[in-house]
Amino acid sequence: MRYFRKIQGERIYLSPMNKDDAEIYTKWLNDPEVSVSLGNFAQVISLNSEQKALEEMTEKGQNFAIVSNDDVLLGNISFFNIKDVHRRAEVGLFIGERENRGKGYGAEALRLILDYGFKTLNLHNVTLTVHSDNEAGIACYRKVGFKEIGRQRESVFKDGRYLDLVYMDVLEDSFQTVSNQSSQSGSGRTSSK
């Protein structure tokens, strides 16, 4: 079996990452549409370096493959810089193939990992950063309950111009409020199982 249903949603599930997926991750991380938004377009990601990175990610940390319910790998999502004493972490994600973006998979994956983070890992505050030109990402994060908390002005050089780096966070209680409103409006909140 390639993937394991650690956290089940409606259309996707989160699985421990599989180191045998190095080739597809290498393809995705060299795709400008993915790598520019992750801030690593200037890096050359080789199959060998990605194999080593995946090996490390599968051994430790809170790193998950985002997988459709029909077992197709869509991307990944991770908690990192976890500070247990302070009950905070950062989150990052991406969807690999263009045809899978804009379909709500990222928002569902975020809801799943946040629910897991707040209820299982005992987190209280989760942050992320996003480039100011990533309007779709910012809209997705707001939909899940993130709020802008600041900007690092003109700190990202992309396509010959400077962009702001937007800092966003979500607190445990505000996430639960947004999630409860979503489930009451009939949009079908996802949950950990």
Describe it.
With 193 residues, the protein is α+β, with helices and mostly antiparallel strands. The chain has one domain (7-184): Aminopeptidase. Helix content is 34%, strand content 33%. The chain has 6 helices and 8 strands. The protein has helices at 22-29, 32-38, 47-59, 105-119, 135-144, 172-184; strands spanning 7-8, 12-16, 62-68, 73-83, 88-95, 125-131, 147-158, 161-171. An 8-stranded mixed β-sheet has the order 1-2-3-4-5-6-8-7, sandwiched between helices. It is globular, with a radius of gyration of 16 Å.
Brief account:
The chain has about 190 residues and is an alpha+beta fold.
Form type: globular
CATH superfamily: Gcn5-related N-acetyltransferase (GNAT)
Query: What is the mean pLDDT?
Result: 90
The separation of the N and C termini measures: 19 Å
Largest sheet: 8 strands, mixed
- Just give the CATH class: Alpha Beta
Spatial order of the strands forming the largest sheet:
1-2-3-4-5-6-8-7
Give the low-confidence spans. 186-193
Please provide the ordered H/E string of secondary-structure elements: EEHHHEEEHEHEEH
* Helix percent band: 25-40%
Question: In terms of quaternary structure, what is this?
Answer: single chain
Identify the CATH architecture: 3-Layer(aba) Sandwich
Q: How many structural domains does the protein architecture include?
A: 1
Strand content: 25-35%
